[in-house]
Amino acid sequence: MQEQRRILDLTIRAGEILLHNGAEAFRVQETMTKIASAYDATNFHAYVLPNGIFASIDNREREVYFTNTRHVPLGPIHLGRVAAVNQLSRDIVAGKYTIDNAWKELDRIIEIPYANKMLQIFWAGICGATFCYIFGGDFFDSIVAFPMGAILYIFLLSVANKKISRIMTHIIGGGLVAACGLILFEFGLGNHMDKMIMGSILPMVPGVAFTNSIRDFFSGDHLSGMSRLIDAVLITFCIAIGVGVVLNIGGYLGMGGAL
Amino acid sequence: MIIDFIVAFFATVSFSVLFNIPRQQYIYCGITGAVGWIAYLLSSYIGLSAVLASFVATAVLTYFARMFSVYRKTAVTVFLIAGLFPLVPGSGIYYTAYYFVMGENQMVVSKGVETVKIAIAIALGIVCISALPNKMFAGIRRRERNR
């Protein structure tokens, strides 16, 4: 009976880590069920929403059911942890872990650090530059997009731990990039301002979330598809509002004439 | 073409860093993304529409992602999500919202419809290749073992 309970706790913990770090709902459900059945759990059921997990298990005599519910807000995406939990679940199925060892491994996984902040800022700049090129900017635009992407990421990192709503973060982020673009363009840097803005804003735009929501629809998970879709659209609108407002103001001031 | 490959490679790697993918996988993520982007450019070059080209490119990319996931013994998601970045219609949804805010209603509809079509094409591409049996990819690991 105790053992069943510990299996439930372990699966919930694994599912929580997966969901919090950006795994898809159906994959979380699959992994939890796999872990539970690897430990010969009876009557294990998991129900996973994009922001919450429900799971229940009985004691082996079907007398008592244990249930566990978690609310899991989405954190910053960390695919390294997702991959590690995936690997763990595969090893559990292969019989390499006892429940205690699996707990220890999960504790190790949540300690996997995020990438170094300077490194993240640098690569956000690279991201801005490369995507500016992909969207049709020229070499000069890409070089100018580098600091814009980096500035955006400095802003995102600095507000990450403060209690500012995601909506405001994205409006301000969009505005910030547009303002940088306008100012740099006004100084004669870059040939295509819209390409520069588009490229450097891309780390914020939820393109993958949008595509994944369609994937959810295809796999029959309409609930999680719908909530992801709405979230992606809302966030994009916030970014566009930020950019649009700043560009309009710039227009009144007679800046960014190429628009 | 070589420049495009390099650019797409670094674009994908930059997202791999931002999404905290383990460092050992950066190169493989980059290759996945770059291959997908080149496939997209080639299919556009031979005259396929953006939607069809996205489908073809995603299919090629997903195939590579599955190969690497067997070869590197890592979840497919890692390579897939990172590799998709150059293809995903991020600019599409952004421009749709942007025209919406700016009040250019006709552009909203045309951009929006195209974006949804591309997203569906990408999702279909992933679904098609994910449906292939694991056996097709098992050969890679066996060859590794013999070496």
Characterise the protein shown here.
The complex is a heterodimer of chains A (259) and B (147). With 259 residues, chain A is mainly alpha-helical. Chain A is 66% helix and 7% strand. Chain A has 10 helices and 3 strands. Chain A has helices spanning 2-20, 25-38, 79-93, 99-109, 117-134, 139-159, 166-186, 193-201, 207-218, 222-252, and strands spanning 45-49, 52-58, 65-71. Chain A is elongated and about 75 Å long. The model of chain A has no long low-confidence stretch (mean pLDDT 85). Chain B has 147 residues and is mostly helical. Chain B has helices spanning 2-18, 26-45, 50-72, 76-84, 90-102, 105-130, 135-146. In chain B, α3 (50-72) crosses α7. Chain B is globular, with a radius of gyration of 17 Å. The relative contact order of chain B is 0.14. The mean pLDDT of chain B is 85. At the A-B interface, α3, α5, α9 and α10 of A face α1, α4, α5 and α6 of B.
Write the layout of secondary structure elements.
The complex is a heterodimer of chains A (259) and B (147).
Chain A (H helix, E strand, L loop, with lengths): L1 H19 L4 H14 L6 E5 L2 E7 L6 E7 L7 H15 L5 H11 L7 H18 L4 H21 L6 H21 L6 H9 L5 H12 L3 H31 L7
Antiparallel strand pairs in A: 1-2, 2-3
Chain B lengths: L1 H17 L7 H20 L4 H23 L3 H9 L5 H13 L2 H26 L4 H12 L1
